């Protein structure tokens, strides 16, 4: 009798604990019900437009035929990937994409940090807001307009900047057609258009830095550069680390619109990247499965880079995504 009662007691306790957890969960749900209602639109957006379309990547493993439909098309496994990796264009596309991505990482990624640090040092409020507005405005200009402006300024037929360079150097440079100038132009366009907008996150991080640290550094005789190096930069290092990890996740994404607008028959050898190749093969030639395989390859590389960079950041004692 006593043994049976001892066994039954823990079971009863467990049942009461489970019932308490259920009541606690329901109570929290009822208490925060309006927060969950506000969450629903965003959750539905991601489910419908982000997660549900993921089923479409399966056509990378099929010989997809639109008239047969998704389920009736033949399953061919990794054939599209083998074709892509053995394609002579693969090495050229990978090289062009990789070089542009490295340029973006080396030149553009630090630019918003530098601008944010400089803006943070401006003490005249009116002038600071004016400069902020000026550097933000290009973000709202369409890339089509940016490409058109580049053409107007650099064309050999009356371009203002081309004429100025020609007058200063005595030489004529065909910036728009010379393959050697394609990548610098792409990076300069990105830096002009997006640097100001990228400073928003860093300025928000800088606003949380304790002012007393600067005051103590001034008392100790630290120069403005020393304060920036030893106080400001360490304060935003976590934000820099997280944004760098996220940027590496899009390492192979060069941006279709900009590359497409700046490409011509004379610079195509360096302008062809994965994004434009997917468009030409998938849309203009109807190779939906093949182009999906290329896109899936890019996504897998991005996931590997995110996990790898996050692991490395953690090992170095920096902030990570998780």
TrEMBL record:
Single biological process term from Gene Ontology: transmembrane transport
Membrane-crossing segments per the record: 34-52, 98-119, 140-165, 185-207, 228-246, 287-308
Domain ABC transmembrane type-1, first and last residues per copy: 94-309
Domain of life: Bacteria
Cited Gene3D superfamilies: MetI-like (1.10.3720.10)
Location of the protein in the cell: Cell membrane; Membrane
Transmembrane is among the record's keywords: yes
Assigned keywords, A-Z: Membrane, Transmembrane, Transmembrane helix, Transport
Record membrane topology: Multi-pass membrane protein
GO CC entries: plasma membrane
Keyword Transmembrane helix belongs to the record: yes
Coiled-coil region(s): none
Similarity-based family: Belongs to the binding-protein-dependent transport system permease family.
PANTHER family: POLYGALACTURONAN_RHAMNOGALACTURONAN TRANSPORT SYSTEM PERMEASE PROTEIN YTEP, PROTEIN LPLB
Protein's UniProt name: Sugar ABC transporter permease
Originating organism: Paenibacillus sabuli
